[in-house]
């Protein structure tokens, strides 16, 4: 299923990134570009992370908060080393 329409990112691609070691929402944003355009996919991406067992490592999903409450996240920049 396509989760991020803007960047054409599927739930399979998100799960594959998690399997490769991505364990924070910010890293997923950097690697896949999810939730960087319109932001409508953010909640679904975070939920996919929680379903994949990454929630304990800062996915940001709080299951007891009301859906209307805004979610804030710290911004972290990751750099890639040249090959």
Automatic annotation (TrEMBL):
It comes from Paraburkholderia kururiensis. Belongs to the Bfd family. The keyword Iron-sulfur applies. Residues 2-51 form the BFD-like [2Fe-2S]-binding domain. The keyword Chloroplast does not apply. This is Bacterioferritin-associated ferredoxin. Keywords: 2Fe-2S, Electron transport, Iron, Iron-sulfur, Metal-binding, Transport. PANTHER family: BACTERIOFERRITIN-ASSOCIATED FERREDOXIN. Gene3D superfamilies: BFD-like [2Fe-2S]-binding domain. Pfam families: Fer2_BFD.
């Amino acid at each position: 299923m396509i989760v991020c329409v803007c960047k054409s990112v599927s739930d399979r691609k998100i799960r594959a990134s998690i399997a490769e070691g991505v364990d924070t929402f910010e890293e997923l944003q950097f690697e896949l570009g999810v939730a960087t355009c319109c932001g409508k996919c953010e909640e679904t991406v975070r939920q996919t992370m929680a379903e994949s067992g990454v929630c304990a490592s800062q996915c940001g999903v709080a299951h007891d908060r009301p859906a209307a409450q805004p979610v804030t996240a710290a911004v972290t920049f990751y750099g890639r080393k040249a090959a």
